[in-house]
């Protein structure tokens, strides 16, 4: 276990070094263009810190278990998915009108506060902040693709890695659009519709893509790459189900965001879809989506989500998808080393709610 921890720490350090080099070079380029631009790059870099580097871990898990040995190349590919994640988070905060992440101002919040300090009106300052966040997300997205190029992959392998990255972004954008369209519906969507959205929005870029990229980089057969995508799809849906539970029942330290936010926003999740099907939902529906929801009101809603069985249903569904994911690993073309790498991933997904 100590050896595994040391290896994981070394791999994370390699990813951190790739990102540090990228931001160092970007700051040097930004200096002649003004202090505000340097600050923006500082804020983008800060947005990449504090996370668990989950997506690079998926790249390394597949790559190392399938015999890859150029870990510098894998670090660049892992860093690319981490930067893609940063980009999507920056834009997601704009969509959700969030000005904090992990208990501190995000890019939008930092530049909003900067404008307020300069004497701007609150509405103008907020627009300034979200505008900076959009620019930051664009920069992170563009550089995610550049990191694939800098990995050293060439020819057909480079083309396949870029296809995986493209599919991750393409699917995530579709999932995000479906998610915001849900808010226009007066009725809560069905569970299956929400699961489809969450697979597109999160599972593809967080699990399917990184696992497949690691396998492609290792030169794995097509059937192994395809099965890893299937594993990633199932485990990614489970991950998002648990994430939605934590968004209401977890802590800010776990999620990086307030646990009242999803309830105030009226976020459509499996928890809410199940609770809305209960006969007494009408007595609680006015609280859901109330932007002025108090902590007391949130506690009342949480109680209903437990009493109606919604929390138990969501956690049980997550276990179901984890088991579906593990079933993919029994295929004969999945080597034992890869099974050994991915079983702990499944345990970690479910362990987040213990």
Brief description of this entry?
It contains 15 helices and 2 strands. A two-stranded antiparallel ribbon has the order 1-2.
Figure out the total of helices. 15
The total beta strand count reads 2
Radius of gyration: 21 Å
Largest sheet: 2 strands, antiparallel
Regions with little confidence, pLDDT below 50 for 5+ residues: none
Annotated CATH architecture = Orthogonal Bundle
Terminal-residue CA separation: 21 Å
At CATH level 3, the topology is Farnesyl Diphosphate Synthase
Q: Write the element-wise H/E pattern from the N-terminal end onward.
A: HHHHEEHHHHHHHHHHH
- What percent strand? under 5%
Keywords: Magnesium, Metal-binding, Transferase
Organism: Pseudolysinimonas yzui
Cofactor: Mg(2+)
Protein name: Geranylgeranyl pyrophosphate synthase
Give an account of the 3D structure.
With 354 residues, the protein is mainly α. It has a single domain (2-351), classed as Farnesyl Diphosphate Synthase, CATH 1.10.600.10. The chain contains 15 helices and two strands. The protein has helices at 2-30, 35-48, 54-65, 71-96, 107-117, 122-150, 155-182, 191-217, 222-249, 252-255, 261-265, 270-276, 295-307, 310-328, 336-351; strands spanning 100-101, 104-105. Strand 1 and strand 2 (104-105) form a beta hairpin. The longest helix has 29 residues, at 2-30.
């Amino acid at each position: 276990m100590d050896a595994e921890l040391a290896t994981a720490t070394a791999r994370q350090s390699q990813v951190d070094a790739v990102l540090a080099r990228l931001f160092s070079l970007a700051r040097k380029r930004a200096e002649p263009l003004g202090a505000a631009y340097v600050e923006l790059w500082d804020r983008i870099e800060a947005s990449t810190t504090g996370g668990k580097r989950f997506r690079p871990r998926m790249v390394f898990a597949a790559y190392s278990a399938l015999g890859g040995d150029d870990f510098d190349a894998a670090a660049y590919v892992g860093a690319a998915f981490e930067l893609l994640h940063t980009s999507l988070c920056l834009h997601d905060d704009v969509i959700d009108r969030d000005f904090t992440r992990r208990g501190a101002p995000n890019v939008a919040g930092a530049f909003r506060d900067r404008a307020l300090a300069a004497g701007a009106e609150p509405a103008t300052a907020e627009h300034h902040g979200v505008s900076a966040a959009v620019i930051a997300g664009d920069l992170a997205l563009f550089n995610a693709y550049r990191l694939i190029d800098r990995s050293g992959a060439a020819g057909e392998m480079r083309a396949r890695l870029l296809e995986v990255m493209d599919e991750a972004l393409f699917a995530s954008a579709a999932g995000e659009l479906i998610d915001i369209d849900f808010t226009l519906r007066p009725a809560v969507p069905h569970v299956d519709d929400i699961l489809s959205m969450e697979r597109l929005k999160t599972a593809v870029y967080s699990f399917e893509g990184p696992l497949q990229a690691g396998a492609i980089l290792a030169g794995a057969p097509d059937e192994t790459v395809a099965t890893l995508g299937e594993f990633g799809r199932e485990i990614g849906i489970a991950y998002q189900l648990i994430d939605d539970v934590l968004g209401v029942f977890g802590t800010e330290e776990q999620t990086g965001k307030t646990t009242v936010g999803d309830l105030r926003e009226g976020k459509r999740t499996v928890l809410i879809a199940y609770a809305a099907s209960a006969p007494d939902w009408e007595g609680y529906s006015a609280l859901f989506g109330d932007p002025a929801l108090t902590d007391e009101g949130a506690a009342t809603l949480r109680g209903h989500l437990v009493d109606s069985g919604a929390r138990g249903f969501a956690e049980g569904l997550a276990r179901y998808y984890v088991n579906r994911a593990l079933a993919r690993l029994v295929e004969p073309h999945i080597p034992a080393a890869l099974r050994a790498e991915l079983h702990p991933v499944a345990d970690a997904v479910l362990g987040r709610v213990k």
